[in-house]
Design goal:
By secondary structure, the chain is mainly alpha-helical. The protein is built from six helices and three strands, in the order H-E-E-H-E-H-H-H-H. The chain has helices spanning 2-5, 37-48, 61-69, 71-88, 93-114, 124-143; strands spanning 12-15, 25-31, 51-55. The protein has a three-stranded mixed beta sheet.
Length: 145
């Protein structure tokens, strides 16, 4: 990217995610060779307006894509599956979806604030880990095109 932009371009790559639309982004940036601390500060200020942003190395950006870039899609599916289970158990769709979404929100808040999380059950942890790694590997493949 720096080669294409020219020798004086101040490049900062950012991987945002869709929750930025509700000021809850989990994003990361990596600084190009010409980017300055001032450039980083500007990008940080912009992204802190819509959530959290972390600075990582270029080599880490594919992992960021796997975790937070693709992560919302995984969680949307989890919420939908939980809501479907609630409907199957007799709840109205709107109540099941609201309960599922609030449960995910509360669980995320608890992990962020206390570090507490549930134990591994039914191989779900391994499935999510494998999905994140697959998304990161795909990001690496696409970056070579």
């Amino acid at each position: 990217m720096e080669t294409a932009a020219g020798p004086i371009a101040h490049i900062i790559r950012v991987m945002p995610n869709t929750p930025c639309l509700v000021a809850a982004a989990a994003a990361a940036m990596c600084l190009g060779s010409k980017a300055t601390p001032g450039d980083e500060s500007v990008v940080r200020t912009l992204f802190e307006a819509v959530g959290k942003i972390y600075t990582v190395t270029e080599a880490m950006l594919a992992g960021v894509t796997g975790v937070s870039g693709s992560g919302p899609a995984y969680i949307y599916l989890v919420i939908e599956a939980m809501a479907d289970g609630g409907v199957r158990a007799g709840l109205p769709r709107d109540v099941a979806q609201a309960l599922a979404a609030q449960t995910v929100f509360g669980s995320a808040k608890m992990v962020l604030e206390t570090g507490v999380h549930e134990l591994e059950k039914a191989g779900i942890r391994a499935a999510f880990m494998n999905t994140v790694v697959a998304a990161a590997n795909r990001a690496i493949e696409l970056s070579k095109l």
